[in-house]
Amino acid sequence: MLRLLSTLLTVSLFSSTLSFAEGFISGKPYDKSINLDTSLPPDLHEDLPELGDVSQTVLSAQDEQNIAEQILAEVAMSDEVLQDAEVVDYLQSLGNRLAAASDDKLQTFYFFVVKDNSINAFAMPGGVIGVHTGLFLSSNSESELASVLGHEIGHVTQHHLARILAKQKTDTFKNIAGIAVALLVARTNPELASGALATSSAAGIQRQLDYTRAHEREADRVGLSILENAGFDPRGMPAFFTTLQRGSRFVEGSAPSFLRTHPLTSERISDVENRVAMMPYKQVASSADYYFVRAKLRTNEGLAQTVIDQFSHNIQTGRYANEAAEHYGLAVAMLRKNDVVGASRQIKWLDDRQIKSAFIENVKARIAVIQNNPQKVAEQYASAIKQYPQNRALVYGYADHFLALKQTKEMIALVKAKQAPYPNDAHFYELLAKAYFIEQKELLRFQAQGEAYYRQYNVDKALEQMGFASKAKDGSFYEKSIVEARLKDLQRLQKLKKQD
Questions:
Q1: 88, 239, 241, 299: which could form a disulfide with 332 (CB 3.0–4.6 Å)?
Q2: What predicted TM-score, i.e. pTM, was given to this entire model?
Q3: Residue by residue, what is the 3-state secondary structure of 301-336?
Q4: Backbone angles phi, psi at 451, to 5 degrees
Q5: 300 in a structural domain
Q6: Which residue from 87, 187, 184, 94 is spatially nearest to 137, judged by alpha carbons?
Q7: Do residues 431 and 405 share a domain?
Q8: Terminal CA-to-CA distance of the chain, rounded, Å?
Q9: Which pLDDT does position 61 carry in this prediction?
Q10: How far is the CA of 378 from the CAs of 184, 235, 368, 395, in angstroms?
């Protein structure tokens, strides 16, 4: 459960910030309460060019990084965030591809998935971007999904929130504690966020932080450029607008989250369509992983049998965008009911057609685990990792297999061999801590757990664990020296954070 660490003002400030942050669909009218020169019409104010980036006077690069770490600390522990390596790695890979196509090559981006079926995504300072599971499921192509991410990347690279704050000459935002809590609360408990906005001070902040239509149009333009540069179809953006409009027509009394907060204006649609019309036609097929991720997310929708029936019906009637992903989804859904025979039948269908995917290899391993066949499990994971050596889900599964058999040496060797590409992966260190606990190696156990906490942005707990490691009775001179040096680093870091 989320820890409610923020005050009502904190929640209200951040939920008002969300009006900007989640804004893929915009068009919010100009707010006359904002103190600007009224000698020009509101729309002209919004379209005036911004001469120089004054955002750094409010949020420095370090401020944005501090905010990002606050968010990521809560993301690491939140029940509302999907901790699925296959889905997260796909999103991060897609996001990195788009970010690499942006003009800002120095900005680091962090992507995570919120377990929420509403159609939504949001960006925050520091390059943190959250995507709801509903966005995956509502998109009709990878280019549509990429168009949303490109738009949110545009918000980050253009420093829209910082620019708004700079105009308001306020630095309130940089001192918010529990910013990520408010972010997730605002999405999983809208009533709480709305109630917080009832205070007069919160309402004032809401008016001050409303983003402009110009910001949204700028994010659209940047997003389109990113889409094209990354090799996606820019028509994915207007296509997604159509998806949102269709959803608002068919859902009586309810509309996609984007549309409820940010109406989709005809001017904005026309602007995007006109820009896309001038771009060369590009037909881009969605990747197999896109379809597999969507299928996997669908397997958790409702009762297992209902999901099985839906996948089966789609296969029988040919109602699918990717037949292989539909059979994969059916296999995963069947495993929810421990139907190994049915799942194996679907995997055989995929194997017979020589369809290769790490997603499929993971299902094969899960089947062997349910069958309680350790030898088959080991053979499957070894073979799969040989094909997909950097797949985190496979490494996690193989490590869990070794732990279950208390084969700690093999597990430690596996993790150390595979963690280099993922230096900030806390779970790898948690696995090491479990193995060292079994081996009764106290220093290494506490050290590994400390490194896990550090990668969850919890310096206090990391420091505590490293302190335990420094007092452990075992460990070589070399290991003790490493721990002592790390302890001093963490102490310095904690001191710096307290000074912020």
A1: 299
A2: 0.84
A3: CCCHHHHHHHHHHHHHHCCCCCHHHHHHHHHHHHHC
A4: -65, -35
A5: no
A6: 87
A7: no
A8: 27
A9: 78
A10: 39, 45, 9, 11
Q: Distance (Å, rounded) from C-alpha 261 to C-alpha 20?
A: 10
Distances (CA, A) of 468 to 179, 270, 438, 442, 490: 30, 61, 17, 9, 13
Cβ neighbours of residue 467 under 8 Å, at least 6 residues apart? Answer: 487
pLDDT digits (tens, 9 = 90+) for 276-312: 999 988 889 999 999 999 999 999 999 999 999 999 9
Domain containing residue 454 = 426-500
- Residue that finishes a domain, picked among 372, 399, 423: 423
> Could you give the CA distance from residue 215 to residue 23 in angstroms, rounded to a whole number?
10
Q: How many Cβ atoms sit within 10 Å of the Cβ of residue 262?
A: 22
Residue 417 is predicted with a pLDDT of: 97
The CB density around residue 51, as the number of other CB atoms within 10 Å, is 6
Quote the pLDDT of residue 496.
87
Mean pLDDT value across the chain = 81
236-249: string of b/e by CB count within 10 Å (b at 16+)? bbbbbbebbbebbe
Q: What is the pLDDT of residue 257?
A: 53
Radius of gyration of the chain (CA): 24
Nearest to 180 by CA among 427, 425, 4: 4
Confidence label for 18 from pLDDT (cuts 50, 70 and 90): very low
| Distance from C-alpha of 412 to C-alpha of 392, rounded to nearest angstrom | 15
User: How far is it, in rounded angstroms, from Cα 457 to Cα 434?
Assistant: 20
Show which of 423, 444, 472 is a domain's final residue: 423
Kindly tell me if the per-residue pLDDT of 183 is higher than 90: no
Beta pairing partners, 128: 110, 124
Burial of 480-493, coded b for 16+ CB within 10 Å and e otherwise, reads: beebeebbeebeee
